[in-house]
Design a protein that fits this description.
The protein has about 130 residues and is low in regular secondary structure. Helix content is about 0%, strand content about 5%.
Length: about 130
């Protein structure tokens, strides 16, 4: 679904009825992405990821929701993680805001089932 617009100081896209307007050609799908006045990205980074286990019985803190994304360590961005990122309380080995680390907990107390991991990052335009 792409990287999405940054959460601050970006106007909502306006439908101008053209293939070149920001509804059909969003600013944050450009490569390279738009930069703000200080040379930082105005958009969320494209290389965000969160781990989601399908078929598992997972506590919310380890579910890998679309808003639990992180960026790689030392990524230069004003938004190194999503708004719902939380480490498992007794497994909090990630201590720097921009360290590219997140803890997950999956119990083995589950019935036999098909389970698979996939990236679950997503961004909405507002």
């Amino acid at each position: 679904m792409g990287s999405g617009m940054g959460p601050m100081d970006m106007a909502m896209p306006m439908d101008e009825g053209s293939v070149m307007d920001v509804i059909r050609n969003p600013e944050c799908t450009d490569n390279p992405q738009a930069l703000d006045g200080m040379g930082m990205g105005a958009c969320f980074k494209q290389n965000r990821a969160t781990l989601h286990l399908h078929g598992g019985i997972s506590p919310w803190i380890s579910d890998g929701t679309p808003h639990q994304w992180i960026t790689p360590a030392n990524e230069e961005t004003p938004w190194p993680e999503g708004v719902a990122v939380e480490n498992v309380p007794d497994m909090d080995v990630c201590n720097a805001v921009n360290d590219g680390c997140q803890t997950f907990y999956y119990t083995n107390q589950q019935s036999a089932r098909l389970m698979f991991y996939h990236d679950h990052s997503w961004a909405s335009p507002a």
